[in-house]
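Page 47, continued from p. 46.
Same chain as before, 37 aa.
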Amino acid sequence: MVNDKLALKAKLFRGFGDVTRLSNFLNQYQMEEKTVT
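Result:
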């Protein structure tokens, strides 16, 4: 049972990391767009 919870937490953290990476990427992209225009 504890292992299942840990696995679920690991999945959640990995998903959160992906979301953070994606938002960082989008922010960078928007910054570059502003610089170009």
